Amino acid sequence: MIGVFDSGLGGLTVLRALRARFPALDFLYLADHAHVPYGNRPAEEVVALTQASIEALFGSGCKLVLLGCNTATAVAARVLQQEWLPQSGWRAKGHNILGIVAPTVEAATQTPYAVTTPQYPQKNNTDLIAVFATTRTVSSGVFPEEIRKRCPKVAVVQQACPGLAGAIEDAASEAVLEQLVIEAVAGLMAGTGGRPPHRAILGCTHFPIVEHLFRKHLPPFTRLLSQPEAVADSLEDYLGRHPRYVAGCDGGRLVLRTTGDAAGTTRLAKVFWPDVPAFGVV
Ligand code: DGL
User: Which atom of ligand 1 sits closest to the CA of residue 133?
Assistant: First the structure.
């Protein structure tokens, strides 16, 4: 099985795109509802919680785990990939972890995998890219860092949305969610001095659930990038190069687990993914 992890429901926006793209693959989704939201937690906590969930997924037979969470990717992916995987012995057993920031940035900058030096026309691209994300993702600086590696002249404006992922998890009313999005867009536009961004990245996997509200309040000029589709494109490319992760993983199974309340999670998930299977507990 391929593991997909998020602090809560947000990763389902990614999982849904993966399920549509790879209907024959087996996926095991783990949501850490016991600790959601991650976005306002200290970095060390995010690393420890992410590691524990990845271990649970590895222990359940997933050789490949995709972090369907920008906060976990921004804060924990590098240290877990470069230090914990080799030291824990999982790498030697063939296990791996993938994040979702790089694929998103590749789509936003149209700079494909493994291009490390900016090429024309990206080198001279002076677009403005907006990033909406959790406080922790914004403070990590990972989106601007990865964008500038590819397009040094692109301007990046980040906007933290501290309450939004939590409000989505709490099934807040549309009016509450819309107010949070209005505030986020107003904060962003203040940061750009009123200049409409060329593209906006919803850099938290919970946010596509309220994408219609971002679309409503962002300037019409601004194109919204689909992170789930970008991640599906990138995973397709990765699995093509690493077919061993697909071997024996082709029963089309979809298993969902949470560290929290399975019935409540299933109810809420169905609001935006009507045919999602029921969650079980870990
Ligand atoms: N959905 C996650 C993300 O992409 C985390 C949100 C949270 O737990 O704060 O950042």
Answer: 10
Instruction: Please work out whether the CB of residue 165 comes within 6 Å of at least one atom of ligand 1.
Output: yes
Which candidate, 200, 259, 253, places its Cα nearest to that of 27?
A: 253
Q: Is the pTM of this model over 0.90?
A: yes
Q: Kindly report, residue by residue over 158-210, the tens digit of the pLDDT.
A: 999 999 999 999 999 999 999 999 999 999 999 999 999 999 999 999 999 99
Residue 121 has pLDDT above 90, yes or no: no
**Residues taking part in catalysis:** 69, 204
Same domain membership, residue 144 and residue 117: yes
Q: Which atom of ligand 1 is nearest to the CA of 39?
A: 9
Q: Which of 134, 142, 77, 140 is nearest to 104 (CA)?
A: 142
Q: Which of 268, 168, 141, 161 is nearest to 217 (CA)?
A: 161
pLDDT at 119: 66
What CA–CA distance (Å, rounded) separates 269 from 272? Answer: 6
Angstrom distance (rounded) from CA 107 to CA 32: 28
User: For residue 258, what pLDDT is reported?
Assistant: 98
Last residue within a domain, chosen from 226, 250, 271: 226
Task: Output the residue whose Cα is nearest ligand 1's atom 2.
Answer: 69
Same structural domain for residues 88 and 164? Answer: no
- For residue 67, the CA-to-ligand 1 centroid distance in Å is 10
Residues listed for the chain? 282
What is the domain extent for residue 219? 102-226
Strands 96-98 and 223-225: unpaired
